Amino acid sequence: MIRELLTSAFTKAAATARDAHRLSYTDLPAFTIERPSNIVFGDFTCNLGMLLASETKQPPRQVAQTLIDFLQLPPTLLERLEITGPGFINLFLSHQWIHDVVRDIHAQGDGYGAGTAGNGARVLVEYVSANPNAPLGTTHGRGAVIGDVLCNVLRSAGYAVTREFYVNDAATSTQMVRFGESLVVRYLQVCGKDIAFPEDGYHGAYVTEIARRIYEQDGAAYVKMPPAERLERFTEMGQTAMLDWQRRVLADLGVVFDNWFRENDLYESRAVDDVVRKLAAHGETYEADGAIWLASTRYGDEKDRPLVRSNGKPTYLASDVAYHREKFTRGFQTLIDIWGPEHHGYIARTKAAMAALGYDPERLHILIFQPVHVQRGSEFLAGAMYDGEAVQLSDLIDEVGRDAARFLFLRAGADAELRVNLDQATQQDAENPAYFVQHSYARIAGILRTAGDQGIAMPDPAATDLSPMTDEVEISLMRRLTDLPEEILTAAELFEPHRIARYAQELAREFHLFYDNCPVLIADTPAPLRDARLVLTGAVKIALHNVLTLLGVSAPERMEKATV
Predict the structure, then answer these.
(1) How far apart are CA 132 and CA 141, in angstroms?
(2) Would you state the pLDDT for residue 157?
(3) How far apart are CA 340 and CA 301, in angstroms?
(4) CA distance 253 to 556
(5) What whole-number distance in Å separates Cα of residue 342 and Cα of residue 226?
(6) 408-444 pLDDT, tens digit each
(7) CATH 3.40.50.620 domain position(s) in the chain
(8) Euclidean distance between CA atoms 262 and 239, whole angstroms
(9) pLDDT at residue 388 above 70?
(10) How many angstroms separate the Cα of 147 from the Cα of each of 161, 326, 398?
(11) Looking at the chain, which residues constitute the CATH 1.10.730.10 domain(s)?
(12) Does the global pTM surpass 0.90?
């Protein structure tokens, strides 16, 4: 990739200059190769000259010139270099190199943008992991799409990725017991019993619906069942119904998991008891007030945390520690957890527990994403009522569709709160990012289809002269195509899948400028220029298809006309 190539070249230039006694430094500072905000400053700019100036006791511009003197790059890569300002080195890529990338896109096809940086390292990504006692909400949907696209990006960058949903179904879970109690009461009410519903129960209509389905299937068979046995049975039936529902909704969103790992398995296998014993054996716990505490402050947590309550029941942290240890024992080199905003306080304690067990806590990465606020027009619906219920993910998918929903959930980085406008998500114009990008793809497909109808075959990219394309709009579009491999790698390294959605919109925007200013098939376009533009158009189609695939969004060959 171009940035890696430039970084390596400048690192070697500095080392060679030092060996030649032109520069004197101990450790090379962390420098950057960045895209400048304005293309007049080149395709990339390097700040190494300024960073080395103080240690070398030389003016920054002089250091920059020395670096250029020792810089070795392929002769076809650069058009020129400039030193500007206090010592920035601006690099202008040659058109020949950009043309070679366009040809390479055709050669690689579906593989363009993918890389091998991950070197097959095994990564486990756990996301969604909603409790099986309520419908999935829009915030769950955001976590689902962040996790799903991140997995796609990591796989494209060369990692071996496993997707996992952690089911919080421990038999001792207070939430699950309360859910089972709520379901029992609704069932008895359906059977005609006059029984009050608990105030702290689950009041949603979905509980009544599950109870009604149980009655339709089994009638009043459970009315006289012993209460304890009935509660256990209904908790199990309710959980099964909710998990089936969650799977269907997630599948509608295009999210499918490799594993559904059940918390209760950790209890049945005694893994929770075992991890508490192991921590105690390592001297990482102590007893106080009848409870067993993890000495997590030793590893940076703000306070110690209970693992086992005074009543002898393990805390949620105990099973979470056992779960993460189990992940490591499966041989994963990196763990990524994607959690909602209410779990921020669990980061330090979970990492502390991994350190206490002897694992490198840096192998565990925890991403916290912020909530989703749904609005229709100027009215916010998140937390309000939507057909009698709080806004559900299934409602959103039904209204705007899978593609629009996935784009919406990636409109901002995970650390920013997200506003989803339902009206905007259903518009067929440039304000709807999914439609805008898909329409660009369909427009490209239409151009290539029209060329075929006119008897114009796609020129051989390897043999086509691309130099007739000299308009700055054409050059800018080609430059944008060269960014894709690095965008994928950066999104993988920083765990920022929203970068791919942003790139898709930028590429679509660049193509629309090209479409408006550089006609491909009009009669007075010279054949060499027409062929060059056809090759470029085909390359954009390949790149855009690959990006939409990473996003889990469809790439339609045809769409209805609309204002874009």
Answers:
(1) 15
(2) 97
(3) 20
(4) 17
(5) 37
(6) 999 999 999 998 888 888 888 888 999 999 999 999 9
(7) 125-167+256-368
(8) 12
(9) no
(10) 11, 20, 21
(11) 433-551
(12) yes
Beta bridge pairs of residue 123: 161, 334
Phi/psi at 116 (5° precision): -125, 15
Angle between helices 138-156 and 393-400 (to 10 degrees): 70
CA atoms of 347 and 367, how far apart (whole Å): 9
The CATH number fitting domain 125-167+256-368, selected from 3.65.10.10, 3.30.1130.10, 3.10.20.70, 3.40.50.620: 3.40.50.620
What tens digit of pLDDT does each residue of 62-121 get? 999 999 999 999 988 998 999 999 999 999 999 999 999 999 999 999 999 999 999 999
Q: What is the DSSP letter of 299?
A: G
Summary mean pLDDT of the chain: 93
Torsional sign, CA 288, 289, 293, 299: negative
| C-alpha span between 418 and 421 (Å, rounded) | 10
The alpha helices in 20-92, defined as continuous H runs, are 48-56, 60-70
Domain spanning 2-93, CATH architecture? 2-Layer Sandwich (3.30)
Q: What is the 3-class SS of 306-318, one letter each residue?
A: EEECCCCCECHHH
Strands laid side by side in the 379-380 sheet: 379-380, 372-376, 418-421
Class of domain 433-551: mainly alpha
Tens of pLDDT, residue by residue over 184-195, are: 999 999 999 999
In terms of DSSP bridges, do strands 418-421 and 372-376 run parallel, antiparallel, or are they unpaired?
parallel
Element (H, E) at 45: strand 44-46
pLDDT of residue 63: 96
